[in-house]
Amino acid sequence: MADRGTDELISSILALLAKKLEPQRSRTIQVQLSNVLQRPIADLEFASAVDALLAQGRLRRVRGGPGGQLVLDQTDPVAAEQESVAGAQESGDWSLERNLMPAIERYLRLRYVPLESGLPPTAVAWVRDTSTGGPHGAGPWSRPDFTLAAVAAHRFVQPRSLELYGFELKPEARCDVRAVHEAFAHTRFVHYAYLVWHLPAQSQRRSVLGTVREYCTELGVGLIVFEQPDLVDTYSILVDPARKNPAPEAIDAFMMNRFSEEDCAEIERAVRG
Questions:
Q1: What is the pTM of this model?
Q2: Other C-beta atoms within 10 Å of 10: how many?
Q3: What does the domain layout of the chain look like in residue ranges?
Q4: What 3-state class would DSSP assign to 29?
Q5: C-alpha separations of 163 from 160, 166, 182, 187 in Å
Q6: CA separation for the pair 15, 21 (Å, rounded)
Q7: Are strands 162-170 and 124-129 parallel, antiparallel or unpaired?
Q8: Long-range contacts of 230-237 (CB under 8 A, 24+ apart)
Q9: 168 and 193 in contact (C-beta within 8 Å)?
């Protein structure tokens, strides 16, 4: 059962989106909520409230822009339920990358960042959908599906620094050695690169897992596999990524091209302390 603070946040999200029926960027909603409620809204708190509304069918997620977009779901509830049941019965339900995106974001926010990233409790983290946008002609291997930006404050170590983590998502049938090289290409502008692969327990694609894992280890690319997209307990980190050292100019360009102006300003303030 949601607590009073979560109930207030959920009500505020619905009230805010009801004023503008077109899709709104997740980060924009989070900032506006902070202004309305006159308090900071943590990423985890916001993600939990959004997850609850998505589960209730009161919101739906729309691709586009850093962090994705959200809009009130005004579809007929009976038709939506029938469509959902029909979709769940299709064997290829998770075969499309776009269908996996919300589940991966949920895993990153609720499990990876707080439990598996190794970031200290003082770290401030931003998880953003960076699969679209960016400069024209940048190429298909210049867009991690998700990017985690993290700034940690330490008592005795200064200055603060920005660490970037890139996550390249692949559905069951589309992961191979080429996918490993695609994830590795992201180390031009992120410190840690991961390949995230949907690999069901009985999948025939498990025959190439050993090869994919070997290439990830050789190139210093992290490997995360998961059996059931909506169950974060089925996600496993099989290979830890090696830290890379992208050029500061490349990091600056990536941040300005893939993150919103609001995010960039907020992250810059965190880095500068």
A1: 0.68
A2: 19
A3: 4-89, 97-272
A4: helix
A5: 10, 10, 20, 12
A6: 11
A7: unpaired
A8: 230/103, 230/106, 232/106, 232/107, 232/110, 232/111, 235/107, 235/111, 235/112, 237/116
A9: yes
153-165 tens-digit pLDDT: 877 877 888 999 9
Fold exhibited by the domain 97-272 = Trna Endonuclease; Chain: A, domain 1 (3.40.1350)
Task: Name the more confident of 1 and 126.
Answer: 126
Please calculate the CA angle 8-9-10 and round it to the nearest 5 degrees. Answer: 95
Mean pLDDT rounded to a whole number for the chain: 84
Domain 4-89: CATH architecture, name and number where available = Orthogonal Bundle (1.10)
Longest dimension (CA), the chain: 58
| CB atoms closer than 10 angstroms to residue 2 | 12
- % the chain with pLDDT above 90: 53
Instruction: Tell me the Ramachandran region of residue 167: left when phi exceeds 0, alpha when psi lies from -120 to 50, beta otherwise.
Output: beta
